[in-house]
Amino acid sequence: MGTVLGMLVLASIAYLIKKNTGLHLHQWFSKKYQQHLNAKK
Fold first, then answer.
1. Checking phi first, is residue 32 left (phi over 0); if not, alpha (psi -120 to 50) or beta?
2. Are residues 30 and 21 in contact, defined by beta-carbon separation less than 8 angstroms?
């Protein structure tokens, strides 16, 4: 049951990010990670 709830939570987070930024979840993570690396320099 916990797995089903976890998947629903992840799906809703992915949907909200897609709706707000226009990016898929993996693209959003890549962008944030790139910003993090650039900030360290």
1. alpha
2. no
How much of the chain exceeds pLDDT 70, in percent? 100
* Chain CA centroid to CA 31, Å: 10
Report yes or no: 15 and 26 within 8 Å, Cβ to Cβ.
no
Does the structure show a pLDDT above 80 at 41? no
Vertex 12: Cα angle to 32 and 3 (nearest 5): 105
**Whole-angstrom distance between the N-terminal and C-terminal Cα of the chain?**
44
pLDDT bracket for residue 11 (50, 70, 90): very high
